[in-house]
Amino acid sequence: MSERVFNFSPGPAVLPEEVLEQARQDIWNIGGTGIGILEHSHRGKIFDEVISEAESDCRELAHLPPDYRVLFLHGGASTQFFMLPAGFLPEGGTADYVNTGSWSKKAIKEAKLYGHVHIAGSSEDANFTYIPTAEEISYSEAAAYVHFTSNNTIFGTQFASAPTPPEGVWLACDASSDIFSRPIDWTHHGLVYAGAQKNLGPAGVTLVIIREDLLSRSTVRELATMLRYRQHADNDSRYNTPNVFGVYIMGRTLKWMLANGGLGTLRERNAAKAKIIYDVLDSSSLFKGTARADSRSQMNLTFRARSEELESMFIAEAEKQGLVGLKGHRSVGGMRASLYNAFPVKGCEALAQLMRDFEARYG
Amino acid sequence: MSERVFNFSPGPAVLPEEVLEQARQDIWNIGGTGIGILEHSHRGKIFDEVISEAESDCRELAHLPPDYRVLFLHGGASTQFFMLPAGFLPEGGTADYVNTGSWSKKAIKEAKLYGHVHIAGSSEDANFTYIPTAEEISYSEAAAYVHFTSNNTIFGTQFASAPTPPEGVWLACDASSDIFSRPIDWTHHGLVYAGAQKNLGPAGVTLVIIREDLLSRSTVRELATMLRYRQHADNDSRYNTPNVFGVYIMGRTLKWMLANGGLGTLRERNAAKAKIIYDVLDSSSLFKGTARADSRSQMNLTFRARSEELESMFIAEAEKQGLVGLKGHRSVGGMRASLYNAFPVKGCEALAQLMRDFEARYG
After folding, report:
1. Does residue A290 share a domain with residue A328?
2. Is A174 a catalytic residue?
3. Same domain for A61 and A110?
4. Structurally, how many domains does chain B consist of?
5. Best mutation target, B18, B199, B239, B240, to test chain A (most A CBs within 10 A)
6. Confidence band (pLDDT; 50, 70, 90) for B4?
7. Last residue of a domain, one of B236, B259, B282
8. A44 and A184 part of one domain
9. Catalytic status, residue A198
10. What pLDDT digit, counting tens, does each position of A83-108 carry?
11. Is residue A100 located within the same domain as residue A145?
């Protein structure tokens, strides 16, 4: 078996090797049942355990208050983009959105199908290189909710902390690319959603954490059964067949996070990992970070070199050294190092070393 | 590693062991890339190959005419229950549905949110123990489409062949539990959908095969982006991040089907497998099949014993012998042997032997 490389992919992304090793066993035969995890009924004992442990581990890891429900849904964050306003933005009503990049814009586009959208803040004026400050955000009167994208994979920015919504208004957060990379203050959060494929597991399963009181409200319009959060909550995420393997891997990854110290420890570790690269950027004359310093992401570090030619050379050289997936998103170019929870410190050190070597030669 | 058992589960269900063995390697490191299949970008070279081969293998296997598109979507068949009428049943319009059991009823319920439903045929009068004949089906004038469930997992019935819709009307088929168990006559089919977790792969990915002309029609109502078939087709199933692992396993399973002779051979093999059990049922005084003989499923064989007590004893004894998952659906009781493509002939022989032994003792 050939060696594994350092995988800087923005998602689907690197997973903990312990989780993969376990999965390789369990695909063949889990828990001595003579049946692999892909082949077990979603209503059988094995999966009962998998999903209930995934839920309780999620609660423990996130320090989730008891009045929140944990759902494992289909459809990715892109389905949440419309399921959220379909469920909570009444016709004629207004929802507030903070626009911090491509994913925010997609969420906004879907919300407009259902009601009015007020852009409470935006960094589009500077190509999304920063996160609007509290002073730069102004809410509408009586918003149905306030939506924000906690981390922006493409532009390499991240909210240092959640925005504070007006009194009585709840936050909806697309946390796809930084969920469980650090503790979450649940105070204002009504609904947090995350496609699994960055910090949580494989693509194809979406974690939704929703406050109980939102489930018991009357719905703002008639909805197909699969689009009702309440339906999924009442059926413990098994109204239809869930992504069994996705929930399984997410569960194992949550256990790995707990075993590695939980969210406080992960925050410190992630900050230390990101600092290794940002320190190089800050002392470089060849490389330059693209995000404003106060808005930098700890998950996706975006940077440019002096020329596109040097960028191509750098990416090619990195690949040769087993540092893979460093090309920036096609819409912005440059480089991007994605350092999710499972990404090892050693990979950051290797990248930093390569950047320094490269600068010594071409700087 | 302990032995694998005979897994009669109705789904998620047994997968080909060759596919599982390959997956165990590829989860760690696929194609010598140093990255596992769960961790590869859905826009990278490895997944480009996976998804394009899955599509071309699907075309080859199904003898798919060139004017159909192959999509790999999220959300299970339950999402298709509403995505289909949302896309094709205009407000005030009528769609025809053949009601052959629980899954048909769920599809009907969702369609009613969007327009009128005409029940073109139903076997509800006899607890869904049969498939309505052509004479028992009567269509409405100018239906938007005719929907049927080709195989009914719970009631153990299966359409011997697709119903013939009125001139110019297309069929929509929920083929979740018998897709690719036999050849498909594409003549009238406009849209075929199937949750993967029976014949195709793991839960969490849905195969949708749709005729080109349906994609190019103007939509009957404004829809969220994720609910537009056209959007997924235009983006080769990668408008958002697909279930990478689900598509991968489906692709490997399609290759396994091709290597095993294709759909004609699988039909013969599946018929032979089912015959092993039906022959026992037909000569038994203790066991009795629940479906009418002309409507019997080759995938899910439902049967009862003389008493519920004997049924419990039989299921327990089977389990001890490594024949697992034979309990009937909670809504109907009794026994159910699910014999999907990957289920081995030997398992059918073992079950038949046990049934005969059991009858010798308790018959």
Report:
1. yes
2. yes
3. yes
4. 2
5. B240
6. very high
7. B259
8. yes
9. yes
10. 999 999 999 999 999 999 999 999 99
11. yes
Q: Which domain holds residue A41?
A: 18-259
- Does the pLDDT value for residue A330 go beyond 90? no
What is the pLDDT averaged over residues A252-268? 98
DSSP assignment of B47-115 equals: HHHHHHHHHHHHHHHHT--TTEEEEEESSHHHHHHHHHHHHH--TT-EEEEEE-SHHHHHHHHHHTTTS
Question: pLDDT band for position B41 (50/70/90)?
Answer: very high
- Dist CA A245 CA B228 (whole Å): 26
Q: Please tell me whether residues A80 and A120 are part of one structural domain.
A: yes
Q: Is B320 a known active-site residue?
A: no
pTM, 2 dp: 0.98
Given a cut of 80, whether residue B1 has pLDDT beyond it is: no
Q: Where are the beta strands (DSSP E) in chain B?
A: 6-7, 68-73, 94-99, 116-122, 146-149, 151-152, 157-158, 171-174, 189-195, 206-211, 288-289, 300-304, 323-324, 335-338
pLDDT at B244: 98
Q: Are residues B222 and B304 in the same domain?
A: no
CB A40 within 8 A of CB B11: no
Do A251 and A151 sit in the same domain of this protein? yes
Chain B residues close to A207, C-beta within 8 Å: none
Clarify whether residues B255 and B280 are in a common domain. Answer: no
Average pLDDT over residues A13-34: 97
The CATH code of the domain that includes B356 is: 3.90.1150.10
In a domain, residue A5? The reply is no
- Tell me: the pLDDT tens digits for A111-126? 999 999 999 999 999 9
The complex scores an ipTM of: 0.97
What type of residue is A160? A
Q: How many CB atoms lie within 10 A of CB B236?
A: 16
Provide mean pLDDT across the span A296-321.
Answer: 97
CB contact under 8 A, B79 and A75: yes
Query: In chain A, positions 202-231, which contact chain B (CB-CB < 8 Å)?
Result: 202-205, 222, 224-227
